[in-house]
Amino acid sequence: MRLRLPAERPTEPPTGYKIAHPVLSRDGTLAGFTGVSLGGALPYAVLDDASCVYGRRHRPPARRCDCGFHCVHDRAAAEDLRCTAEHRAAVLLEVSVLGAYIRFERGFRYARQRVRTATAGPCGCGAGAVALADAGWGRLGWRALAPACAPCVRGRTSLSLTGFARLAGQGLRVVAEGGTGRPGSAELESGAGPSVPELVAEAALLQARLDWFQSQLARLGERGAGDGAQG
């Protein structure tokens, strides 16, 4: 005789919280996330179905497996995960738990999810983030991104927070910690028009890139003048 878990029929999808790393496809046409634990090798979109990381043919979440998306009930518990050194650059996700799920004491394991909001922490230097820039590592075909302020972006591959939300699509909201109304704080729901803080953040990012390119051109000019003098 098998013991069956109690069935739930919620009137609306449960909400959960998790951390993940933003990722950008090699050709720059897709944006998504990759997990920080078992499923980290399989980047996922804003709206996506789970698959078994072991390659088994069952549907997640299987009771005799640990496959499927994972999240916790409490936002503070997810934020605590970002205190560890390896997860400092991860973003906090608020997700809708869709499809079949198994409820645990601290969270859910489930079949399908929609990422509603991604909250980026500060840049590694401590300033507010205006972009998600190349973190220096990635998965096959995907570059991992990390929160960055305008001066720290420089020549790295990057997307503004608004740009990442638009590319990821599906109504994703991208928020920078630190409050609204100042450079370094931006919020966008994909498909919505940019607000004044978003435009300020975009301008700061573009100016930082322009400054970096001008410094590189000046360096090349000095090198060319030096070579001419030696000749």
Task: Describe this structure as you would to a colleague.
It contains four helices and eleven strands, in the order E-E-E-E-H-E-E-E-E-H-E-H-E-E-H. It is an alpha+beta fold. Strands 1, 2, 3, 4, 5, 6, 7, 8, 9, 10 and 11 form an eleven-stranded mixed sheet that branches. Strand 5 and strand 6 form a beta hairpin. The longest helix is centred in the last third of the chain and has 35 residues. About 6% of the residues have low confidence.
Summarize the structure in short.
The protein is of the alpha+beta class and 231 residues long. The protein has helices at 75-81, 150-153, 161-168, 196-230; strands at 15-25, 31-34, 47-49, 69-72, 91-103, 107-120, 131-139, 142-148, 158-160, 173-176, 187-189. The longest helix has 35 residues, at 196-230.
Write the layout of secondary structure elements.
Layout: E1 15-25, E2 31-34, E3 47-49, E4 69-72, H1 75-81, E5 91-103, E6 107-120, E7 131-139, E8 142-148, H2 150-153, E9 158-160, H3 161-168, E10 173-176, E11 187-189, H4 196-230
Parallel strand pairs: 6-10
Antiparallel strand pairs: 1-2, 1-5, 1-8, 3-6, 4-6, 5-6, 7-8, 7-9, 10-11
